[in-house]
């Protein structure tokens, strides 16, 4: 991270020993450690705050999704879109069949005339009516 090697650390220690003095060096290191600890706590609190904000935003999105799913109008629109999508391929075929049904009677040949004028005999097993 900082890429401080042992030689640089040794030089900083010697300079601190010369500038601060051997008597005050332990107190200075203790104070420096306190500040580093406070700085770490502040960074951790900041990171926790950012994480809380991200979690709250995720919860809002989840709540919006659940609300949209339970909202009857949104659900009806969702179903209507699904129905429309499913019916798209069927609509042209239905319209084509409707047009074919309107023209079909004119194109059909007439029923052939009965060959003989005898009434049709009832089929065996079918109910017969008495004269």
Question: What descriptors fit this protein?
Answer:
single chain, 131 residues, mainly alpha, 2 domains, 4 helices, 73% helix
Structural commentary:
This protein has 131 residues and is an all-alpha fold. It has two domains: 12-70; 71-104, no CATH class. It has four helices and no strands. The longest helix has 46 residues, at 25-70. The protein is rod-shaped. The termini are far apart. The model has no long low-confidence stretch (mean pLDDT 76).
Structural class: mainly alpha
The secondary-structure element order is: HHHH
Measure the end-to-end span: 113 Å
Average predicted local confidence, pLDDT = 76
How many DSSP-defined strands? 0
Percent of residues in beta strands? under 5%
> Could you state the oligomeric state of the chains shown?
single chain
Question: Summed up, what is this model?
Answer:
Helix content is 73%, strand content 0%. By secondary structure, it is an all-alpha fold.
Chain-wise SSE layout:
Blueprint (H helix, E strand, L loop, with lengths): L5 H15 L4 H46 L1 H16 L2 H18 L24
């Amino acid at each position: 991270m900082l890429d401080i090697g042992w030689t640089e650390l040794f030089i900083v220690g010697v300079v601190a020993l010369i500038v601060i003095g051997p008597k005050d060096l332990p107190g200075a290191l203790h104070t420096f450690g306190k500040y580093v600890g406070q700085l770490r706590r502040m960074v951790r609190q900041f990171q926790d705050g950012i994480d809380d904000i991200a979690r709250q935003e995720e919860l809002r999105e989840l709540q919006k999704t659940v609300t949209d799913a339970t909202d009857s109008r949104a659900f009806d629109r969702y179903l209507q879109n699904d129905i429309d999508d499913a019916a798209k391929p069927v609509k042209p075929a239905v319209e084509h069949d409707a047009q074919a049904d309107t023209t079909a009677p004119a194109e059909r040949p007439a029923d052939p005339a009965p060959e003989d004028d005898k009434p049709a005999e009832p089929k065996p097993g079918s109910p017969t009516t008495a004269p």
